[in-house]
């Protein structure tokens, strides 16, 4: 039984390691990375010795860390990487050649780089890149003190060159496929609404059978967007700000679709929808014409939203102006449904107004909370990251111990180009044993194949120009194919690095050394992953996601109690509850990232959990905004908040239990069934409670989809 378990696990690792993601190769990104890498090498004759190589390394690292997003954020990230890499290369150069000192400093640097994983989205790549740069500098001693500053200066220059190329000269659009899929959701709903409006405009009843092709098209568009969102997440350690907004736009489109269907079904039931209108054929025909006008307005608004989603620049806020009052005069129930559709459309309009810039979205009455959650200082707090159960801390210690062992081993054995051992161990090592094994397979096999290619090319091409051309080609291919499979990156990245090293060292047997040192580094990483805080092989995501939802429940209940307590306005008493949400959400994100790497099914089945985690953090942000009502002059009574407090507590506990046990959640309370504070008791409180209720509904839908997919 034990052997069969190992065999199944190994087979799964091999299958996962060789799997190609269903995405296009990033050829534009590969060409840009090649330009960033090779351009400094063209200036080798006018630069100090070794400067071009360091600038080239920094250019490649800068190109790899650029994942898109607002230009200001990308500029800050790439500038920070250049600065940290410059400091790392100078520190490594200072301690190079002093084994004891280098071991001590390596542990400290590796620990700090491992802790950078707490920096959402770019942290893992940022830490690894900085540590790799330090390891290379440590392995190549300097001959003069001036060379230390030369290295740092040209690492900084190479990073700045990569930033200028990425942001000003050749900006890429990594979220373009997701944009197109999400925009198509809104266009498909618009076509459906227009088709349904045609008979209604003539006063005729709506026939669902005639619109069946439009219904199928909308559902296909929503599913395609869901798959695209999940695939875009695979290359990231956490969801980016723009990715979150596109995910929310997708969720909003799903809600819009459901409400448009409800609107047409309600309009097709005169006994219910038109009960408060005169029971005459003329009145029914008039109501249908008014409904047709509303549907036409909805379609126009959704088309404008779709265009704005695809736009690479922020457009003006799209107005939501439909004859809602006229329809409400004909039918109160139809008017209420259209009002909810208008709320969702206004929410989408608010998001796209700053989709590209990333500017905060102002909260408005009736809107779902779509603004970026306020920064969580707990994610960067040493008290949170260094807690005994922290996955980030465990991985940072694992990286520090393995990296230090590699430096000590190569120093004692005096291995030729031993830094490849360190680099391999650093790159392969992941927070979980399964992902480490899979990446080790990709790295080792890719390096062996790439080393064989490099050995053959080394015998054929010796001129500097030929080497530069080959380096450019292999750099382009390795970066372009990285989204498909890390093994492909290793296959083509190995010849690029080997040819660069051979060109400077004149040693045409480095390919064999690269293979041997890679095997040794891979072995160190595997041993470290298995012995040092090994990740559990079973999936703990349901437990951690349920804990995050329950932490939100506790935070919300405390915030409600604070707002209802007219004698207190001390927001400090909520600090521990909010910290609990942030810690639980971070643990759930780490667990989900492991699920992404081990997932065997279709990628779109991961989207519901992505939505759950996004709304877990956004619900906490909305709760924090609601708690500010405790400092306002107008505050609701405890009795007016009690029904919402009870209902929200039950909903969140039910959702946590559903995620944990895999059972379907209870139906969400019908609109209007839970009394909530009215605008007369405070416009701000009314707005924020309404927003919280709608977020709870979105989370409920995501949990329901997740449970159904897991049981299918």
Question: What features would you describe in this structure?
Answer:
It is a single chain. This protein is an all-alpha fold and 712 residues long. It folds into three domains: 27-171 and 379-531, no CATH class; 176-352; 538-711, Up-down Bundle (Methane Monooxygenase Hydroxylase, Chain G, domain 1). It is built from 26 helices and no strands. The protein is elongated and about 90 Å long. The two termini are 28 Å apart.
Keywords, separated by commas or semicolons:
Methane Monooxygenase Hydroxylase, Chain G, domain 1, 26 helices, mainly alpha, 712 residues, elongated
Strand coverage percent? under 5%
Give the helix/strand class: mainly alpha
Rg is 29 Å
Q: Calculate the terminal CA-CA distance, rounded to whole Å.
A: 28 Å
Task: Please state the average pLDDT score.
Answer: 78
What is the chain-wise order of helices and strands? HHHHHHHHHHHHHHHHHHHHHHHHHH
Shape estimate? elongated
Helix content range of the residues, please? over 70%
**Runs with pLDDT <50, length 5+?**
269-279, 365-380
- Largest sheet properties: none
Number of helices: 26
Outline of the structure:
The chain is mostly helical and 712 residues long. It has 26 helices and no strands. The chain has three domains: 27-171 and 379-531, no CATH class; 176-352; 538-711, Up-down Bundle (Methane Monooxygenase Hydroxylase, Chain G, domain 1), CATH 1.20.58.
What is the topological layout?
Blueprint: H1 2-18, H2 27-42, H3 51-65, H4 71-95, H5 99-115, H6 123-139, H7 145-169, H8 176-201, H9 212-234, H10 241-267, H11 270-273, H12 281-310, H13 324-330, H14 332-352, H15 382-385, H16 391-413, H17 419-428, H18 433-460, H19 464-481, H20 486-505, H21 510-531, H22 541-564, H23 575-598, H24 607-627, H25 638-661, H26 683-711
Helix pairs in contact: 1-18, 2-3, 2-7, 2-19, 3-6, 3-7, 4-6, 4-7, 5-6, 5-16, 6-17, 8-9, 8-10, 8-12, 9-10, 10-14, 12-13, 12-14, 13-14, 16-17, 16-21, 17-21, 18-20, 18-21, 19-20, 22-23, 22-24, 22-25, 23-24, 24-26, 25-26
